[in-house]
Automatic annotation (TrEMBL):
Example of a GO biological process term: mitochondrial electron transport, ubiquinol to cytochrome c
Keyword Transmembrane helix among record annotations: yes
Protein name per the record: Cytochrome b
Subcellular location, record wording: Mitochondrion inner membrane
Annotated ranges, domain Cytochrome b/b6 N-terminal region profile: 1-138
Keywords attached to this entry: Electron transport, Heme, Iron, Membrane, Metal-binding, Mitochondrion, Mitochondrion inner membrane, Respiratory chain, Transmembrane, Transmembrane helix, Transport, Ubiquinone
Gene assigned in the entry: cytb
InterPro entries with a match to the protein in the record: Cyt_b/b6_N (IPR005797), Cytb/b6-like_sf (IPR027387), Cytochrome_b_N_euk/bac (IPR048259), Di-haem_cyt_TM (IPR016174)
Keyword Signal listed: no
Function field: Component of the ubiquinol-cytochrome c reductase complex (complex III or cytochrome b-c1 complex) that is part of the mitochondrial respiratory chain. The b-c1 complex mediates electron transfer from ubiquinol to cytochrome c. Contributes to the generation of a proton gradient across the mitochondrial membrane that is then used for ATP synthesis.
Membrane topology qualifier: Multi-pass membrane protein
Parts of the chain that traverse the membrane: 34-54, 60-80, 87-104, 110-136
PROSITE patterns linked to this entry: CYTB_NTER
């Protein structure tokens, strides 16, 4: 039902919410469940800080890597509906990478799949949003 194309992504989200049986419920559970998941993650990090778990460097560093992967999954999922705010998020956040000396511009073009945020970007982000949870769970 979802279409990773800049011209029809927002319309496909509206189609899922309006025309698919319980599509509105699925979208709301997905978004709010992700928010609750982040609350649980932050509580888990807080517990680790309180009990000094950061002293176990290998375990803590693996947790930090998993946190970055979860944040990346959430970011690319936020961009997928392709409304005004998600377009702004894709442009501004990925443009922050262009501040990296020497490789920033090339890195942004590699992530976007071209010189601007376009359908190639949505296709990549949809793929990452689907694949990253399996990588995190592995």
């Amino acid at each position: 039902h979802y279409t990773a194309d800049t011209n029809s992504a927002f319309s496909s989200i509206a189609h899922i919410c309006r025309d698919v049986n319980n599509g509105w419920l699925l979208r709301n559970l997905h978004a709010n469940g992700a928010s609750f998941f982040f609350i649980c993650i932050y509580l888990h990090i807080g517990r680790g800080l309180y009990y000094g778990s950061y002293l176990f460097k290998e375990t803590w560093n693996i947790g930090v890597i998993l946190l970055f992967l979860v944040m990346a999954t959430a970011f690319v999922g936020y961009v997928l509906p392709w409304g005004q705010m998600s377009f702004w998020g894709a442009t501004v956040i990925t443009n922050l990478l262009s501040a990296i000396p020497y490789v920033g511009t090339n890195l942004v073009q590699w992530i976007w799949g071209g010189f601007s945020v376009d359908s190639a970007t949505l296709t990549r982000f949809f793929t990452f949003h689907f694949i990253l949870p399996f990588i995190i769970a592995a």
